[in-house]
Amino acid sequence: MLKKGFSFAFIILGVLVLGGIGGVFFSSYAVPYLSSVPSLAGSNLLKQLNDRVTIINKTEQVVIREDDSIEKIVSQPATAVVDIVRLPDAEKKEEKIATKVSAKTIANAETSQTAQSTSMTGVLLTNDGMVVTYSEQPFADESAKYAIILFDGTSHDANFIGRDSLTNLDFFRLNDSSDTAAISFANSDDARIGKKLIAIGNAPAAYQNRLALGTLGNIDHTFNLSSSSKTVASSEKWEGVFEMDFGTPGDFVGGPAVDFNGEMLGVIGSVSFNNTMRTFVIPANTVHDSLKKAIAGTLSDRPVLGVYYRSVTDTLALSEGLPRSVGALIAAPSAVGGKAVAAILADSPASRAGLQAGDIIESVGGTDIDLEHPLSQLVGNYTKGSQVDFHILRNGEEKTVTVGL
């Protein structure tokens, strides 16, 4: 009896399977085919069956259109981009009038004064009004007065806080700021070549953002902010920048380079050499370290070593026959302004400590020098008056030299 039940169940299952297959074949193939036969095309039954056919294998093309505007991305960081304006010196103008200088002389002086009162693009870094900009040559000094124009067009008096001689960053603080729109920092250590970036600057003579889209084209570990030479680095200038490819980069100096999360990857800077401007991006983590010194009032404590050097790479080691592929080779620039320059500055801490041209500095204070930790960066971590051990390689002999920065 049980066997008969199983046999009956298998028969029913087989009928259902065959029926299902037959139904699919009939609806998917037989009905469309019969409907295409001219003599049967007018049949109402075939029309109804054909209308009920479900097409399963249907390819649907979906077009995803990328937004052609970066306005949403920069909407927040753009509110932290400001204009820094150096104000005319009213006292000097009054002195000229009081001494009855001729009107023509006063007009010429005012024209010169106006030319010098240029504006710079800057970035709000904190909610209490700390602003940074980049200038190759000192743009600000404590004796001058400044105004900062915010994104909403309002003008605010500001004080010059100080200049970081290592990074060429100038810092200001708004006098009447209670809650400003600060930019968000990205972790520049995570930056990778090919990353899309947006440069934000201000148009001259009016507060108006200008934008440029580009990519992080290179991480140049050996580029030094010193404009004295392309071949060697200065121990008093930052080494290691990002390179971003975009047009008219000079228009964005002092402004931020932000990623597609709207976070600042760095501040745009430039140096000039032989009448050629080269722009770059100072990494955000470097800017943050300078900011901490500006807030603490320790920017003036940056130390001095007094050497020119070349960061040792595999290429340099092979071409110069060096015994090491990392370190800092003390070397003189070929010329600065047409004049020969020594590798070690006279009466500098390096000179007094006995460092020599051709020495390879291997470590500073126990930290090894490599492309991620160049000499200028390691020296910049100390303050004036520090006594630091330099481990060097001289003529194949290891030495330790103590330098009073």
Overview of the structural elements:
The chain is an alpha+beta fold and 405 residues long. Among the domains are: 38 residues, no CATH class; 104 residues, Thrombin, subunit H (Beta Barrel), CATH 2.40.10; 103 residues, Pdz3 Domain (Roll), CATH 2.30.42.10. Helices cover 25% and strands 30% of the residues. Strands 9, 14, 15, 16, 17, 18 and 19 form a seven-stranded antiparallel β-sheet that branches. Strand 4 and strand 5 form a beta hairpin. The relative contact order is 0.10. About 8% of the residues have low confidence.
Query: What value does the Rg take, in angstroms?
Result: 35 Å
By CATH reckoning, the class of the domain at 71-174 would read Mainly Beta
Helix and strand pattern: HHHEHHEEEEEEEEEEEEHEHEHEEHEE
Largest sheet: 7 strands, antiparallel
Distance from N terminus to C terminus (CA atoms, Å) equals 104 Å
* Helical coverage, percent range: 10-25%
- Shape call: globular
Extended strand count: 19
The DSSP helix count reads 9
Poorly predicted runs of 5 or more residues: 53-57, 91-117
Helix- and strand-based class?
Answer: alpha+beta
